[in-house]
Design brief:
Structural class: alpha+beta
CATH architecture of the largest domain: Alpha-Beta Complex
Distance between the termini: 46 Å
CATH topology of the largest domain: Aminoglycoside 3'-phosphotransferase, Chain: A, domain 2
Number of helices: 10
Number of domains: 2
Strand order of the largest sheet: 1-2-3-5-4
CATH superfamily of the largest domain: Aminoglycoside phosphotransferase (APH), C-terminal lobe
CATH class of the largest domain: Alpha Beta
């Protein structure tokens, strides 16, 4: 069986009109051989990702989720522009092919990129890829190295200076995510007042190293080479990329980092295989980032707390859609308890 991450049948309620989409793309991409086959990459909780096959061509389509969604978080045109500008300086990002603003084609704006064929690590390693301690560690070091390189890019030279405002970035993030959590409340949601109050009272100084940040950087958003699994060849899902404090990016990435000794409640929320023998600890990740960037990190607790809180908000927002019948994806039913665990972890970290 191939190690390459494969698409599956499209989930109920998330189908695309393959005939209409194929006719549209054939007009935009000369030489595309119809008919078009549409399958879906099954993981991910935000923008939807489909594999389009036509003849010997494979491209990937990204569109916003069905149901209520914040427009700023699912701006397809913005994500396409980021990829177009970033590609010359960071070839690990997907090569953009076409952006469509005509919602009549599939019912929403979308864009397509060339497929990066390779291994995507999800909650567990694929059975065909033995998770040896050496491989686990090598892949995680590659993950940190690529993030450090991204943060070292000259975003102004790439034409991305207008992507965000680094001044006041951290304060805006705390305020914005606090409001998002309030709007995503369900009857069973945990109170976040202790966490949001602590964050607002403990804002770090302005970063002297504004950078292009990915904002959802984690193992299942990168692609490893199927022939050399220790080599990272792609970074996906740029929908939240902006200009801001790179330590916020690192802190949000660490929120996904569950260690083997974190306890059963936390291990139950694990999304990625960061608990296996050979894995970096969260402290190892920080040391590796320091080594790759040549910068000594400040006290990191604020960024850890914010990362956990922001992940709790993301999870709670998705659970809100499920609780209100805006999506039927059964995976989302378990996200309410997960959001509560993340709030508890953030509060404990703030008290530490």
């Amino acid at each position: 069986m191939s190690l390459v991450d494969e698409a599956v049948a499209v989930r109920a309620g998330e189908a695309l009109d393959a005939g209409r989409l194929g006719a549209y793309l054939a007009r935009q991409l000369p030489g595309l051989e119809l008919p078009l086959t549409v399958r879906q990459f099954p993981s991910g909780f935000s923008n939807l990702t489909y594999l389009l096959s036509a003849g010997n061509v494979e491209i990937v389509l990204r569109r916003p989720p069905f149901g209520t969604r914040p427009k700023s978080g699912h701006d397809m045109g913005r994500e396409f522009r980021v990829l177009s500008a970033l590609r010359p300086g960071f070839p690990e990002c997907p090569n953009p092919v076409h952006n469509c603003t005509d919602e009549s084609v599939i019912g929403a704006p979308f864009y397509v990129v060339e497929r990066i064929r390779g291994i995507i690590l999800r909650r567990d390693y694929p059975p065909e890829l033995p998770a040896t301690p050496g491989l686990v560690r090598a892949q995680q070091l590659e993950l940190v190295d690529a993030l450090a390189r991204l943060h070292g890019l000259d975003f102004r030279a790439l034409g991305l200076a207008e992507l965000g405002r680094p001044e006041g970035y951290v304060a805006r993030q705390v305020e914005g995510w606090t409001g998002r959590y309030a709007r995503a409340q369900t009857a069973d949601a945990a109170s976040a007042e202790a966490v949001t109050g602590w964050l607002a009272s403990n804002l770090p100084p302005e970063s002297p190293h504004a950078a292009l940040i990915h904002n959802d950087y984690k193992l299942d958003n990168v692609v490893f080479d199927a022939d050399s699994p220790e080599r990272l060849i792609g970074v996906l899902d740029w929908e939240m990329a902006t200009i801001g404090d790179p330590l916020m990016d690192l802190g949000c990435s660490l929120a996904y980092w569950v260690e083997a000794d974190d306890g059963p409640e936390v291990l139950a929320t694990r999304m990625l295989p960061t608990h296996l023998p050979g894995s970096l600890t969260r402290a190892d990740v920080l040391r590796s980032y320091e080594r790759e960037t040549g910068r000594t990190l400040p006290e990191f607790r604020f960024y850890r707390v914010f990362g956990l809180f922001r992940l709790a908000v993301i999870v709670q927002q998705i659970y809100y859609r499920y609780a209100h019948g805006e999506t039927r994806d059964p995976r989302f039913g378990a996200l309410g308890p997960m959001a509560r665990v993340l709030i508890d972890r953030a509060e404990a970290e703030a008290r530490a």
